[in-house]
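Batch manifest, entry 17 of 40.
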Amino acid sequence: MRFHRLRAAALSPLVALAFAASAGTAVADTEINVGALRLASQAPTFIAFEKGYFKDEGLDVDLKFFEAANALSVAVAGGDVNYGTTSITGSLFNLAERGVVKVIAGSLSEDPKIPGAVILASKKAYDAGLTEPAKIAGHSFGATTAGSSFHYMLAEIAEKDGFPLDGVQLKPLQKIGAIVGAISTGQIDAWVIQPSIANKLLADGGAVKIGDYRDYDPDYQVTAVFTSTQIATDQRDQTEAFLRALSRGVKDYNAAFVDKTMDKPEVDALVDMVHKYVGTDTPVETFAPSLTEDSMRVNDGLALSVTSVAKQLEFLQKNDLVSHDVTVEMLVDPSYVTTR
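Output type: structure tokens
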């Protein structure tokens, strides 16, 4: 399959930030709903909101919160939310087959140089011998739903370590919070999750690290930005403005929490902004390490790995979780950002 790259960088909506003011005028006072999960990985959205980057583009944003990727996907497809950032799932491909959603940009990704998702065993399972990913066979594994990103990551581990996927008991628990509780109490044996959540489980003694997911899938496009097909097709100025603003949030996030090139006072200010939405039940000093020490990279300029998207579709079709008629082109609109 062949995807065309974005038009020349000088005209790119994500790198031509000097044009932000004029673009903002084009969509002045436009009200939009942006869907989000209360996860540290969604910090760029919260930063862009708090620092006024959306307002700079003429966008009046109302944040809508969800507890799982599938619910957010359905909300975007139904028009209740205009844009969202979440994992690529079977639900998203099924909606794409119906022609109602489009992925328009990338977001969180594995980076071989940066600590990424952690493969965990419950303390109970670890003590009973689950000490490495290759031993997950015959155990239970936490997921939100079948066809979720967690299901995909399990499949990659199974393939690389040579055990049958159907030899693992997938436990769909719907919400991330429910999976956290299940692995902490030994109700499930294994899980894979971003370091901002994994490291808290490790510190609390609720789980034991048995591997790094980046060793299995170093180009994994963990999350992506998506919208309805109608908006992607008919509201280009608005969508470009949204992505410009979000890309500024990404730049701040990477500088502060991944590349460590931002001054401490600025970093502290960003932590405070994100803490308004994530980890609100803990003091900010307790929450801060989930950003300052445990952040994964978000793709610069919201670039998208179409190669990873295609690999995820292959998994879903191989396991009959989506129709074999679905194509990557049905899901991805490659005209907004750089793709690879």
